[in-house]
Amino acid sequence: MGYTILIVDDSLTARTFIARTLQMAGIPLNQIYQARNGREALDLLEREWVDLVFADINMPVMNGTEMVRCMRAADLLKSIPVIIVSTDRSAHRMAEMKEAGVQAYLTKPITPEDLKTIVERFLKNA
Amino acid sequence: MAISDSADEMLITYSLGSCLGVAFYDPVLRVGGMVHCMLPLSQIDNDKAREKPAMFVDVGVPKLMDEMLKRGCRKKDLITRVAGAARVMDSTNLFRIGERNHAVFRKITWKNGMFIQAEDIGGDQARTLQLEIATGRVVVWSQGREREL
Amino acid sequence: MSADNINTLVEVTIEVLEGYAFMLGDPPKTGGKPVVLADPSWIVTISFAGSRVGGIGMVVSPPIARQAAANLYAREPAEISNDQAQDAVKELLNIVCGHYIHKDGANEAVIDFGVPALQSVAREDAARYVNGKPQAALVVEGHPLLLFIED
After folding, report:
1. Count of CB contacts below 8 A, A vs C?
2. Which tens digits make up the pLDDT trace of C57-114?
3. How far is B46 from chain A (nearest CA, A)?
4. Is B73 noted as a catalytic residue in this protein?
5. Which of B3, B19, B59, B79 is catalytic?
6. What is the DSSP string of A28-96?
7. What is the pLDDT of residue C102?
8. Which domains are assigned to chain A?
């Protein structure tokens, strides 16, 4: 058995980058799911359990902020750690996301090394 | 460029300014390799690149990796550490040689599915990089101070 | 102001190209040859609103986009589809935009970013599109990349 991880980003490139880093890191993986926006992610989370979510903020249909708020309001989803990976570097946005209940906020571009460190930190506690 | 599997040896490269010093170490076979590259891309001087591939990051680093694989090392075992890429020779930083060396190096590690274990890069100081073959210990000296990577 | 902005845009684009796509870009040369855009060219734009309002964009040749995607996907350019190449340059511009807005530690700005858009156009149409806008041309691994600002 390994971990199940969900990557939410409207960019295929961004999702692929994170997925490849996770595979390179030698973390035991059960499944990597991908979603293109918050709505697709919530639909998936209704059916599947995941150990960790990576999410962008700025996405069409449903953005990351709204997605996190929905997750935090749902009993079954509120304990799943969410790591934001966004281009938005504003202090305001970081504070807003922290208040919404995210566990970490990374700004793009991230290095594979940074990503590996943070994933290992979260999965150790998962 | 140098490779060693002798426990009593150390690989050292001096005067890393905007140049990049790369150390690979295989803890399973206790084999270490080091290369000191000056420029990012070999296409500016193909003759030189054939003669001295280690001068260029884009051919020097893959060559070192190949040589280590020929000695039986496995890519997934290699511990990668890097130092240099400073701005020492170019105070206006017009040419960004250090940053470019580092970018090309990162492209190579990413393409090969390798993580950089540790790095000491940037700034404006020269560095010396040293790798102990017996232990795999890597040390960077800069401005009289020693730092383990 | 526009000159400052375009210089900032050039600077952050070079940094992002190096740091994210592992590509090396050369800044515009004074008195250099005028840039010849590719045919077709891809125009990628992103807009923003909030404390700052406007947009930035780039005109790229499909081969640059393919190379960027190949680097990011750790593949060869020949293995990259048009969709992957277009997505890669959109994501690249998205990151450039984040850096551009918050350059010099201006992290107090509150900005809503748009979603990057891409259109493939003939060379003449690309030239017409950027005409009159503050712009600067980089050379990225032998290919032109034209940056521009929309107010």
Report:
1. 63
2. 999 999 999 999 999 999 999 999 999 999 999 999 999 999 998 876 566 777 888 9
3. 31
4. no
5. B19
6. -EEEEEEESSHHHHHHHHHH---SEEEE-S--SSS-HHHHHHHHHHSTTTTTS-EEEEES---HHHHHH
7. 82
8. 3-124 (3.40.50.2300)
pLDDT tens-digit map of A1-49: 799 999 999 999 999 999 999 999 888 999 999 999 999 999 999 999 9
CATH number, position C83: 3.40.1550.10
Please name each of the domains of chain B with its CATH number: 2-148 (3.30.1330.200)
Instruction: For residues A100 and B4, give the distance between their C-alpha atoms in angstroms, rounded to a whole number.
Output: 53
DSSP letters for chain B: -EEE--TT-EEEEEEESSSEEEEEEETTTTEEEEEEE-BS-GGG-HHHHHH-GGGBHHHHHHHHHHHHHHTT--GGG-EEEEEE---TT-TT-SS-HHHHHHHHHHHHHHHTT----EEEE-SS--EEEEEETTT--EEEEETTEEEE-
Q: Which residue has the tokens 């073959």?
A: B133
Q: pTM of the entire structure?
A: 0.92
ipTM for this model: 0.91
For residue C118, the cross-strand partners are C44
A86 neighbourhood in chain C, CB within 8 Å: 98
